[in-house]
């Protein structure tokens, strides 16, 4: 009883001490934020909404209204110039649309991927997501080792050998569209493109037949859930602390676990085949297994590392290509004159052939221009970021080192000073004789950390679009929105619903 009395007498003092320590720590944190404001406020930028939270309330408001945060970055680029400042708590982010700085930062390995964003991609709500895979690895040596191992799966010779699979899976989509045409039903083009893109990456990268156009699968929904969760996890630091969000957070965690569990199963099956001396393709899955090294015993971290790259390629190989195809279809539907030019080229190059060859792709030059213009206005991966470890000068403004630089391909591609009448869909901007954009067009990033799958994605998109245009006429359903949905990647908000008809080719 006496001990209990003594403890009670000490409790108010202990509580007071904790409160004092908390106040001192909070005051110190506020002083540190003030120090950062003084250090970087010579850089132009929008007014902060809050001393403590900086510009993050603006981001939350955009998300609440189902807007596109990259439109806000574009607005700030136009208002404050090629270098502008963003504050979020004690983080300082520098938005950059200056081509010379873009060249310097993206073409050099001395500017690593930024710690804030890519650490947030390591896991989502406590479940490992992209980990230290090829996209998220910050250490240059670690990244370079992975890239060197993965390169053979994306060599020109290997990609040529994938044309059969590209054709085969695209034909399944054509069969589905034929059914839509004959039944006179509306086709959700984004959903169909998601299925065919995921079918292709599963087959050519992992040797698995999903047949998503015939059979239901949890994977498309899981990918969408992970990406949506990723956005909230990155942009809203308080999201997981509100009980009304917990159900969704559990759905995100389960979606992450599904992808990683699936990856573990497919990796183990391939490893067993290799151990049994079976002939296996030199695809992404084989290269992922090689990336764990040649050690006799593979550690738990090695296993997780393989799963990091599985999830990276599984999502990236499907999401960006499907969205590009959907945006391309949307713009062709809005511009019948451009569609007619593409039809003529497809008819001249492919004719009535069902099989599109690798050489055919090289002759579809106008279709290439259309796809490039699509990615200019709708870069499905709308930007990238790097850490600036040292001081540098950008457009005459001194940038103290230790900040993150955000390079927005979305903003650059929509700026009048780089592209005349930027919101006009004009594939002739990318005519072979037209001037090349100078470091203001980079939908696949630039430099050593540029997208490894750029040629893969372009080949796949060309095959699917060429077959679609060869076989069908499509008309956009009236009244649909042409707005963008921001899910980390960018996708058409309405899903591009179309009516499909068989072409009358004479």
UniProtKB/TrEMBL annotation:
A GO cellular component annotation in the UniProt record: postsynapse
Catalysis performed (reactions): testosterone + reduced [NADPH--hemoprotein reductase] + O2 = 16beta,17beta-dihydroxyandrost-4-en-3-one + oxidized [NADPH--hemoprotein reductase] + H2O + H(+); 7-dehydrocholesterol + reduced [NADPH--hemoprotein reductase] + O2 = cholesta-5,7-dien-3beta,24S-diol + oxidized [NADPH--hemoprotein reductase] + H2O + H(+); 4beta-hydroxycholesterol + reduced [NADPH--hemoprotein reductase] + O2 = 4beta,24S-dihydroxycholesterol + oxidized [NADPH--hemoprotein reductase] + H2O + H(+); 7alpha-hydroxycholesterol + reduced [NADPH--hemoprotein reductase] + O2 = (24S)-7alpha-dihydroxycholesterol + oxidized [NADPH--hemoprotein reductase] + H2O + H(+)
GO biological process: cholesterol catabolic process
Listed GO MF terms: cholesterol 24-hydroxylase activity; heme binding; iron ion binding
Topological type in the membrane: Single-pass membrane protein
Positions annotated to bind heme: 451
Catalytic activity, EC: 1.14.14.25
Location of this chain's protein in the cell: Cell projection, Dendrite; Endoplasmic reticulum membrane; Microsome membrane; Postsynapse
Pfam families: p450
Cofactor: heme
The UniProt record lists the keyword Ribosomal protein: no
This protein's pathway: Steroid metabolism; cholesterol degradation; Lipid metabolism; C21-steroid hormone metabolism
Keywords: Cell projection, Cholesterol metabolism, Endoplasmic reticulum, Heme, Iron, Lipid metabolism, Membrane, Metal-binding, Microsome, Monooxygenase, Oxidoreductase, Steroid metabolism, Sterol metabolism, Synapse, Transmembrane, Transmembrane helix
Role description: P450 monooxygenase that plays a major role in cholesterol homeostasis in the brain. By promoting constant cholesterol elimination in neurons, may activate the mevalonate pathway and coordinate the synthesis of new cholesterol and nonsterol isoprenoids involved in synaptic activity and learning.
PANTHER family, sorted: CYP46A1 PROTEIN-RELATED (PTHR24293:SF0), CYTOCHROME P450 FAMILY 46 SUBFAMILY A (PTHR24293)
Stated name of the protein: Cholesterol 24-hydroxylase
UniProt source species: Neogobius melanostomus (round goby)
């Amino acid at each position: 009883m006496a001990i209990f009395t003594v403890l009670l007498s000490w409790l108010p003092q202990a509580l007071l001490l904790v409160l004092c320590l908390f106040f001192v720590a909070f005051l110190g944190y506020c002083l540190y934020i003030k120090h950062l404001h003084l250090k970087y406020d010579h850089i132009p930028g929008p007014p902060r909404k809050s001393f403590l939270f900086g510009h993050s309330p603006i981001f939350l408001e955009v998300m609440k209204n189902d807007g596109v945060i990259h439109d806000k970055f574009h607005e700030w680029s136009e208002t404050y110039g090629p270098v502008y400042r963003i504050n979020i708590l004690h983080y300082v982010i520098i938005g950059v649309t200056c081509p010379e700085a873009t060249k310097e930062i993206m073409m050099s390995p001395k500017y690593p991927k930024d710690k804030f964003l890519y650490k947030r991609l390591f896991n989502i709500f406590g479940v490992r997501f992209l980990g230290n895979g090829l996209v998220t690895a910050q250490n240059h040596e670690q990244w370079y080792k992975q890239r060197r191992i993965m390169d053979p799966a994306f060599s020109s010779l290997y990609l040529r050998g994938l044309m059969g699979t590209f054709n085969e899976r695209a034909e399944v989509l054509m069969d589905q569209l034929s059914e839509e045409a004959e039944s006179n039903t509306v086709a959700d083009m984004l959903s169909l493109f998601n299925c065919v893109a995921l079918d292709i990456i599963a087959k050519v990268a992992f040797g698995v037949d999903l047949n998503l156009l015939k059979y239901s699968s949890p994977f498309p929904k899981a990918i969408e859930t992970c990406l949506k969760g990723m956005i909230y996890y990155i942009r809203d630091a308080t999201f997981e602390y509100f009980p009304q969000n917990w159900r969704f957070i559990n759905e995100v965690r389960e979606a992450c676990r599904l992808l990683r569990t699936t990856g573990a199963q497919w990796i183990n099956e391939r490893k067993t085949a290799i151990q049994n001396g079976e002939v296996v393709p030199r695809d992404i899955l084989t290269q992922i297994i090689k990336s764990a090294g040649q050690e006799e015993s593979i550690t738990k971290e090695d296993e997780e590392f393989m799963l990091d790259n599985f999830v990276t390629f599984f999502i990236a190989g499907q999401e960006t290509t499907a969205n590009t195809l959907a945006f391309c279809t949307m713009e062709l539907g809005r511009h019948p004159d451009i569609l007619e030019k593409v039809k003529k080229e497809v008819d001249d190059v492919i004719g009535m052939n069902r099989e599109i060859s690798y050489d055919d792709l090289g002759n579809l030059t106008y279709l290439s221009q259309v796809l490039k213009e699509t990615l200019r206005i709708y870069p499905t991966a709308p930007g990238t970021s790097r850490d600036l470890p040292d001081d540098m000068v950008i457009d005459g403004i001194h940038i103290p080192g230790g900040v993150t630089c955000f390079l927005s391909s979305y903003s650059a591609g929509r700026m009048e000073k780089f592209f005349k009448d930027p919101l006009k869909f004009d594939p002739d901007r990318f005519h072979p004789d037209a001037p090349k954009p100078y470091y203001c067009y980079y939908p696949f990033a630039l430099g050593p950390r540029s997208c490894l799958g750029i040629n893969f994605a372009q080949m796949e998109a060309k095959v699917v679009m060429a077959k679609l245009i060869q076989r069908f006429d499509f008309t956009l359903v009236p009244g649909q929105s042409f707005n963008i949905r921001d899910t980390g990647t960018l996708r058409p908000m309405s899903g591009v619903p179309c009516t499909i008809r068989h072409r009358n080719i004479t």
